[in-house]
Write the C-alpha cells for this entry.
Amino acid sequence: MKFVIKFIREALGRIIILIDLITRPRKQKRSPEAQAKVEAELNNYSLYQFYACPFCIKTRRALHRLNLPMQKRNAKEGSQHRAELLNGGGAVKVPCLRIQKDGQDTWMYESSEIINYLEQKFA
Ligand SMILES: N[C@@H](CCC(=O)N[C@@H](CS)C(=O)NCC(=O)O)C(=O)O
C-alpha cells in the first residue's frame, strides 16, 4: 500500500512537472551587469528539494520566473544533502532555502515564505 501511494505521488509529481514545463512564465530580464551581480549573490544560496514534490516545483517555477539560477540539492533518502538538511535546518522537509552568509546559516522552510523572500530581494 505504501508503495502504491509513493508511486501515485511520483506520477502526479511528474504530471505537474510536465504542466509546469509547458506553461513556464517568462524569465525576468536584467542587464548583463545586474544579472552577474545577482548570480554572485546566489553563491550564498541553495535550495534543498525533491524533484517531483509539488511545493518544490512551485518554488523552482518562481526561481525560473525571477531568473535565479540557484544551486539545487536533492534531499533524497540516504543522501548527504538530506543529512545536511536534517542537521542544519532541523527537519527533513522540502523545499528549504539555505542562506550562507558571514559564516552563518539560515534555513528557510515553507514554499510561500521562500518565494516571498526571493521576490522581495531579487524581483
Ligand atoms: N507547506 C509546505 C509543505 C512542504 C511539504 O509537505 N513537503 C513534503 C514533500 S512534498 C516533505 O518535505 N515531506 C517530508 C518527506 O517526504 O520526508 C510548503 O509549502 O513548503
About this structure: The first strand starts at residue 45 and ends at 49. The chain has five helices and four strands.
